[in-house]
Amino acid sequence: MGNISAVTYARANRHRFLHELKEFLRIPSVSALPEHQNDMSAAAEFVRSSLLRTGMENVSVIRTDGHPLVYADWLNAPGRPTCLCYGHYDVQPVDPIEEWRTAPFEPAEHEGNLYARGASDDKGQLYSQLKALESLFHVHGGKLPINVRILVEGEEEIGGKHVAQFICKNANTLTADVALVTDTKMLAPDVPTLCVGLRGIAYVEIEAHGPAVDLHSGIYGGNIQNPLIAMAQIICRLKDEKGKITVPGFYDRVAPISVEEKASWRRIAADIERSLQDRVGTALCGEDGYTPLERAWGRPTLDVHGIIGGFGGDGPKTVIPANALAKLSMRIVPDMRPAEVITQVRNFIHEIQPSGIRVNLREIQSAPAVVVDVHDKYVEIAADVLRQVFGNRTVFVRSGGSIPIVSDFQTYLGIPTLLMGFGLPDDNTHAPNEKFGIRNFFKGIEAVIRLMERLKPVA
Ligand code: BES
Ligand code: MN
Ligand code: MN
User: Contact, 318 vs 203, CB < 8 A?
Assistant: First the structure.
């Protein structure tokens, strides 16, 4: 091929790129479920072999005690910046399976979208990066315009610590100037969006232990504490009717939302609130004194994900269960510290546990919140590249979701992260009928190509 541009190459190969993405999506790499162990290896292997074909060097699958990491680099552009690319090959479970219109691991095209678990989060978005690299290598005679490292993990959806351990252990050799994460969403179709803030998370399990064994509720009822009731009472005391979390000290470190950010969010609030409203199907409600957008992007939350215990089968069973379990998480914002939040909750539930009940709390996962400086030079370049690709001005947003690795990039490597995502609000991530706009997949490839070409002269 002569002197074609990387974007031209990517456009000419769209059909094959999409075909390959479907192969990737057929691998049911559900990180949470042990029965998918082999699929996790298969997905890591898929990423490895596809990186090998692009021209990346030092391509390796790194075994961990959990799911494998995939690493590769190409560092032959001295004097040019180094970009650390990141994505995850693991996906969320598919249940409730009966809600899917097509099989979750049999990618289906419909009205310009590709339907499959992981299409948007994050296989499709990760694959945009891989195909951008391939296109760049191809038209630059086996070279890239900048230095690139890529790190792909399989434990993002389960808050696994192995990728953080890898970064911490190799902090001295994993040098880079900026990280690139394509795992966030755009505000709306054709509205290029850079995410400049993510909430963190502190996820815990609380156990309430009552009697030594399950007991007959007729014989013992009235004389003992029921752990399920105790759990419900404890949970009710964590939040008041105004939506304030009542754990002592919880808000002490919460950074106020700046006046500028409040103003800039207000300008985009109407559309987002409408789309939130459309999707939830009930009235929006939350912490008094804050708008829905402020609550989602700049305020912490406390939610219960499940309460387990006792009897839930058909018909009656008159039992007072010995134990109850609740799964609970707090989304946290700058400058809250996950370990401190967990300690505050633990102390509080011990303080309020009713007599006859012993509670204990176990941390499941945690990650601090992140904010990216909108005036960072890499952020400014990325915003301009996106404007060029989508033909509209780039909007800066935050997200209520969490991507734990981003704070590790900041802490261990001291680099900013470009959260440049191509998902859309209605992609059904983590839900039945997940999809990715095929157009967004291709636009994503072009954006990553143009970003890397634009970073070439940035020392
Ligand atoms: N890609 C998402 C996070 C996300 C979604 C960021 C939308 C911005 C916009 C990620 O895969 C995710 O789901 N993260 C989990 C992390 C948790 C399991 C530690 C989350 O936010 O629940
Ligand atoms: Mn993701
Ligand atoms: Mn996810």
Answer: no
